Amino acid sequence: MEGALKYKDITEKIIGASFEVHKFLGNGFQEVIYQRALAYEMSRAGLEFSREIEQDIFYKDLKEPIGTRRADFVVAGKVLVEIKAIIQLEDVHWAQVLNYLKAYKLEVALLINFGSKSLTFKRLVL
To answer: Are 80 and 11 contacting, i.e. CB atoms less than 8 angstroms apart?
Structure first.
């Protein structure tokens, strides 16, 4: 249970900012619109974050990366945030976030969906 509450203070602020965005915009916009609005709300909440940090993906003992990925946000250097604007989250989206956690060497992530009638989110902990 202790691991599930890791960075609770940060994730609560992110979730609160997400609800504020969804309350104002509703659903139906492109992901980038929600990303920009969430950046604004997280700044207002006093959260430090980076947007779309490119992360190299390595395979086994290869010295060169085999590709790159970009998470939507890394907040306070501790919490990865991936946002979607789709009708319903599916297992593939959770798998994507778990892979991002491993690639970014982080332990806690939020997968937030602005595309449904009500805001939905999933908190993932490695």
So the answer is: no
